[in-house]
Amino acid sequence: MSAQIEATLHDFPSLFSLKGKIAVVTGGSRGLGLHAASAFMQAGCSKVFISSRKAAACEEACKVLNALPNLSPGATAIPVPADSATMDGVRSLLAQVKQHTDAVDILFANAGATWGEAFDTHPDQAFAKVMDLNVKAVFNTIREFAPLLQKRASLEDPSRVLITSSVAGLGVGTLGKQGTYGYSASKAAVLHLGRNLALELGPRGITVNSICPGFFPSKMANGLLAMSGGADKIAKANPMRRLGRPEDIAGAVVYLTSRAGSHVNGEAIAIDGGALWSRGEMLVEEQSKL
Ligand SMILES: NC(=O)c1ccc[n+]([C@@H]2O[C@H](COP(=O)([O-])OP(=O)(O)OC[C@H]3O[C@@H](n4cnc5c(N)ncnc54)[C@H](OP(=O)(O)O)[C@@H]3O)[C@@H](O)[C@H]2O)c1
């Protein structure tokens, strides 16, 4: 191959563009889902559907998104409140989206819940709650939206499913008084669900990938951050000496949903500054012995 051919990239300026794409974001009213929705709106999406249980929260998020500077022309956020944890809720979400479009290009299955409780008293109901929302609901949402995702999908320009897992699904979660046993297991399960669906849906022109965030300040994470010694302590222990930022989510979701990420399928990207691999004090001790 000649240098001329090897150096030529097809239309680089559009590589990270989501121009004209239609996205659905569950758990989009705040936190990581809202960071991603903002990125979708600014990267070119024409419609971004914002879903969570509370209608007022979805409307408020859409108001903020629709007033963002730097929106791509015509970009609109549309509230579609629904409880993803129930089959009725998933069907209601689909019906609401169908009132506006018969095609969806990006599904961000991000809604999730956690539960912290000691091992000895960890309740059955806690396990059921996190498995239902974090795993079963993700499967149900992807299955129900598959026909809309297939509508404009092609192997050349695939539709995208993104799942929010967690580094708690790659390593272990929190142990002790606030043990997140069910949560950690659910996030590992949904990662593997993603790999299965990547092979099932790839040939239909739909990629399936997961993001595995570390600690990002959010309503869900703030309580655990406080109980683990505070945001500053957790940030200092991170190899990058900080917690996650909205732009860290924005960059990852735009990469995975744009043409730049179209050959990534069945993957999981950790967004945690490398904290998963750090061995804390053990490493310091070993180094001091050298
Ligand atoms: N923040 C972190 O450090 C972190 C790290 C790793 C993974 N994650 C994952 O990231 C995802 C988002 O978490 P977050 O930190 O952004 O938390 P968050 O700020 O508490 O947001 C959770 C979102 O999910 C919605 N939601 C909760 N239950 C729902 C249900 N049954 N149906 C539909 N929507 C529901 C909430 O809105 P409503 O209350 O209105 O329903 C809200 O929009 C979760 O899957 C979480 O496990 C977060």
UniProtKB/TrEMBL annotation:
<protein>
    <submittedName>
        <fullName>Predicted protein</fullName>
    </submittedName>
</protein>
<comment type="similarity">
    <text>Belongs to the short-chain dehydrogenases/reductases (SDR) family.</text>
</comment>
<dbReference type="Pfam" id="PF13561">
    <property type="entry name" value="adh_short_C2"/>
</dbReference>
<keyword id="KW-0560">Oxidoreductase</keyword>
<dbReference type="InterPro" id="IPR020904">
    <property type="entry name" value="Sc_DH/Rdtase_CS"/>
</dbReference>
<dbReference type="InterPro" id="IPR036291">
    <property type="entry name" value="NAD(P)-bd_dom_sf"/>
</dbReference>
<keyword id="KW-0521">NADP</keyword>
<dbReference type="GO" id="GO:0016491">
    <property type="term" value="F:oxidoreductase activity"/>
</dbReference>
<dbReference type="InterPro" id="IPR052178">
    <property type="entry name" value="Sec_Metab_Biosynth_SDR"/>
</dbReference>
<dbReference type="InterPro" id="IPR002347">
    <property type="entry name" value="SDR_fam"/>
</dbReference>
